[in-house]
């Protein structure tokens, strides 16, 4: 998800009063442990929360969608779906859309399964996800999977597939049989990534093609009289080398000026190892080169990009890299801010539109994910910084358990055997334990997808 988000509201709680981690200078850190492989993650800017789609826990089941409240971390809801989720989108009204493929039915016949989009309302957590778009299995083999959902800021959800040039826009109201969705036919290739921006009555788009290191920019509903409605922009000549490029898709992020108008696009080209800042003309939607940065790594080393709307926080990483490169936009250029050392295993990066929250998904040796939350990532000091092993919310849990007589030991935010034993005993009791007005058990369920088992 790369659509512009609303301003993030960060709740002032005791968790923010903890001393900052080794990153320093006001940044705060949290960790959600033992998460099944994360398929998609999205920041809920309006409420200061987080959503993730995680891998199914058994054959014939779909992804689970989890909602967390932050500061401190608490699990708010969990929905089991019948969809293998590829992407999550949150609308300005707070509704959640998840695009993907229908899960195989237990004992059902093998064959082509349909693409599927579901929706849920976090304000009604007891309600199951509702089907938004679906076709019978084997009926639409040209839509085997919906890869992304993007909201136009008004009343339409646009969905992409990895096999079609056409991006379809559906109204959020029930779609009537025989009704035709809006269609945007891309000119440069099938989309690997698709972003919407601008006002709902004149939305613009940027798409990364699945091949050829191309970006396409234009208007969803171009003016027929426009001299140039948009077009293709080759970020790099990936065909210049003798050996064929293995990563032909550019990763992008749309940036905006101080008034909130989209005026630039960041483009990460994995084959050449460059990060380009491209100007975006608001009238013609044409892209032109501005600044660039050489990432100093081999082909395919950096494949992940996330940025705040104003470009003050830019993170670039890759699964095999031990650190995230940090940049910030300065006019038409890019300034290197430093490196955040994370260790290998990085899978996903998200940065909220206002830059107040960054989310990292890191795979561990057991095949489970850790979700690292960084509050105020722009406050990280320039230069090298380390990702701390402990989190503020677990530190609060440990302090509360110590006060309740569970003898955790030092409240360092790191899960150890004494913490696991204390949590196991606390979860087995019916007594309510509070920290800053929050139920500690709800915090434990938030920090650990599966509470640790202690002796």
Count of separate DSSP helical elements: 3
Largest sheet: 5 strands, mixed
**Biggest sheet: strands side by side, in what order?**
22-23-24-25-29
- Helix fraction bin: under 10%
Q: First CA to last CA: what distance?
A: 41 Å
CATH architecture of the domain at 1-15 and 35-185: 7 Propeller
Q: What is the mean predicted local confidence, pLDDT?
A: 86
Contiguous runs where pLDDT drops below 50 for at least 5 residues: 1-25
CATH topology of the domain at 1-15 and 35-185: Methylamine Dehydrogenase, Chain H
Q: Structural class of the secondary structure composition?
A: mainly beta
User: How large is the share of residues in beta strands?
Assistant: 35-45%
CATH superfamily of the domain at 1-15 and 35-185: YVTN repeat-like/Quinoprotein amine dehydrogenase
> How does the overall form come out from the CA principal axes?
globular
Structural Rg: 22 Å
Question: What's the count of strands?
Answer: 31
Question: Under the CATH scheme, which class of the domain at 1-15 and 35-185?
Answer: Mainly Beta
């Amino acid at each position: 998800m790369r659509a512009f988000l609303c301003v993030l509201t960060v709740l002032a709680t005791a968790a923010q009063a903890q001393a900052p981690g080794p990153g320093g200078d006001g940044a705060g850190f949290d960790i959600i442990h033992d998460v099944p492989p994360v398929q998609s993650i999205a920041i809920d800017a309006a409420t200061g929360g987080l959503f993730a789609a995680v891998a199914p826990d058994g054959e014939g089941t779909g992804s689970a969608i989890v909602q967390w409240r932050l500061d401190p971390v608490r699990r708010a809801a969990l929905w089991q779906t019948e969809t293998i989720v590829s992407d999550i989108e949150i609308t300005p009204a707070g509704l959640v859309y998840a695009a993907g493929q229908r899960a195989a039915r237990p004992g059902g016949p093998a064959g082509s399964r349909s693409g599927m989009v579901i929706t849920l309302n976090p304000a009604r957590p007891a309600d199951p996800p509702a089907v938004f778009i679906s076709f019978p299995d084997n009926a639409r083999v040209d839509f085997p999977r919906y890869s992304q959902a993007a909201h136009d800021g008004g009343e339409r959800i646009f969905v992409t597939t990895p096999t079609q040039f056409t991006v379809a826009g559906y109204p959020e109201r029930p779609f009537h049989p025989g009704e035709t969705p809006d269609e945007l036919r891309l000119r440069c290739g099938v989309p690997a990534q698709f972003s919407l921006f601008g006002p709902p009555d004149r939305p613009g788009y940027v798409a990364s093609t699945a091949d050829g290191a191309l970006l396409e920019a234009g208007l969803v509903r171009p003016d027929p009289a426009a001299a140039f409605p948009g077009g293709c922009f080759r970020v790099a000549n990936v065909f210049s080398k003798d050996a064929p490029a293995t990563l032909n898709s550019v990763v992008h992020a749309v940036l905006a000026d101080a008034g909130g108008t989209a005026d630039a696009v960041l483009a990460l080209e994995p084959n050449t190892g460059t990060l380009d800042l491209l100007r975006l003309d608001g009238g013609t939607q044409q892209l032109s080169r501005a600044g660039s940065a050489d990432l100093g790594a081999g082909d395919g080393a950096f494949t992940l990009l996330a940025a705040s709307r104003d470009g003050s926080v830019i993170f670039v990483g890759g699964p095999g890299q031990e650190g995230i490169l940090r940049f910030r936009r300065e006019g038409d250029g890019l300034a290197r801010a430093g490196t955040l050392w994370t260790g290998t295993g990085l899978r996903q990066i998200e940065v909220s539109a206002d830059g107040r929250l960054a989310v990292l998904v890191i795979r561990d040796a057991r095949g489970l994910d850790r979700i690292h939350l960084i509050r105020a990532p722009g406050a990280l000091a320039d230069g090298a910084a380390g990702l701390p092993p402990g989190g503020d919310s677990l530190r609060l849990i440990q302090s509360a358990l110590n006060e309740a007589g569970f003898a955790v030991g030092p409240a360092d935010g790191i899960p150890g055997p004494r913490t696991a034993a204390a949590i196991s005993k606390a979860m087995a009791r019916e007594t309510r334990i509070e920290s800053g007005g929050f139920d500690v058990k709800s915090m434990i369920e938030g920090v650990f997808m599966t509470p640790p088992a202690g002796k």
